[in-house]
Amino acid sequence: MSEKKEFPAIKNNLHPRNPHRGRYDFPALIASCPDLAAFVAPNAYGDESIDFADPAAVKALNRALLSHFYGIKEWGLPEGYLCPPIPGRADYIHTMADLLATSNKGVVPRGAAVQVLDIGVGANAIYPMLGKVAYGWQFTGSDTDDLALDNAYEIFERNEVLKDGLVCRYQADAENIFEGLIQPADLFEFTMCNPPFHSSAADAAGGTRRKLRSLGTGHAKGKGLPPPVLNFGGQSNELWCEGGEMRFVRTMISQSRPFKQQCLWFSTLVSKQDNLPLVYQALERIGAIQVKTLDMAQGNKISRVVAWSFMTEAEQKLWAKSRWRS
Questions:
Q1: Which UniProt keywords apply (predicted)?
Q2: Domain at 5-323, CATH homologous superfamily
Q3: CB of 270 within 8 A of CB of 306?
């Protein structure tokens, strides 16, 4: 298994190709999405901002970002579904683009020849949207939630810039991540996943209170207020699973080997640095040939992608030569 740390930490800086590196230009965003104006006001420092503890404000900001930067004019979510922060999600896409470029003479491959499998695509379809617009990649999105898949499909159907960029597949067995999903003829440049972070509903609620504490709301201190509302939303399957992130990631690793010839790279977000030693142990046990840890920014914290491949560098270059034009 190759050296695990491959790229330097990005710290608080987003990827160089990430269009969200600067501060939010609210006048420009409002011009793209006038509905955002109702949520913009001076903050404690006198700067224009929104209340990031308000789910409606966060959703309006997302609509404006998608419209302004990606030309996605029709985007919405069913009530209560995850509304992810876009800047950090974009970094995952650009980070994986750089990883593919290492097998392609430093050139990021573009176009529909690049096939990506998004495990847990969600109703928001955030990764397929960003990857389709930024690089023209073709996505397959899986989920255990029919309503989420229906909404993801509708987003792609309603936006011309996204047309034909997403195939949705329902995963009937939540215990299987790849089995029953990857078909015999499928070939994927990489798989990606933002696994459920928490281990239980109570754990998820505690995480919400910690987040609200950082935003300065009274819910964090239990001041007799109603239960806190998730500012980014999320259904139970989006936020938690038994055993939390570590169990989910280890299951994904153990189930990846049967598909080692159909995926150039497998990857997943790992939000907790303390989980990395166990992740590396699991990858060593299944015989991953290359493992890369790609540090990046995720909102107000540092996260990382762990990517693994069962192919040698020579095999990776042959894959690239046979499938990509650039």
A1: Cytoplasm, Methyltransferase, rRNA processing, S-adenosyl-L-methionine, Transferase
A2: Vaccinia Virus protein VP39 (3.40.50.150)
A3: yes
